[in-house]
Amino acid sequence: MKSIFTIIAILCLALVLSSCGSKNAQPSANTNSSTTLTTTDDSVAEAPPRELTPEQIEARKFFEQANELARKDEDQAAADIYQKAISLDPDFADAHLRLAMSYEVLGKKDEAEEEYKKAAEAYEKFVRHNQKDAKAHFNMGLAYNHLRKPEEAVKAFRQAVKLDPENSDHQYELGIAYGKARLYQESFNALEKATELDPDNYRAQEALEQAKINLQRWQAMVKQQEAIARRQGSKNSNANANANLNVSPIPEPRY
Do residue 173 and residue 103 come from a single domain? Predict the structure, then answer.
């Protein structure tokens, strides 16, 4: 009998260990699955870098050539080369943005606006798979800024600042975008941060002075509106009190 009980005990122990082993193995699979489905923007894993096609490699060579021409103020020649880069890689967001800037310098406003739109669209597509690319978010903000879409620009610049908070230029552009969106306190805060990060950022210093003026004007306007509202409320209260004195003792019917 003892031998039978011993065998049964061994079998039970084996089953328990087997069950524990399967339970320990299962969570890792579930964790991977749930992570894929429930990750937030902050924790999404970056897509692995895609290997460039020969056309994309050639497009980047053209892009560098165009950048060199732009640095020499040869804007028309630069625009022509940017177009070649885009013809090889239509989703090349940086090339669309630089082409838009070249068109703007050349006074081609309609062409510039069209390229800014294409740049914004290309960056939106790019950051969906490269959410932690601060430069891409920053450039997307620049495109939206030129398109006079301050809300979209703020969203892009905020992400760039979140990813690279010590970058003075990112803070500066965020402050400018906040100002265009009439978020004056936020504009002042961002520009103040930009000057703290880089005391030699004279653009940020000048913009901060203007942001301070805008904030003071806005605060004064808010106080004035609050005072008007209080006076109006007081008038309404007095009017209601006077009306109550003349009310007939017979209540009016309610419908």
Answer: no
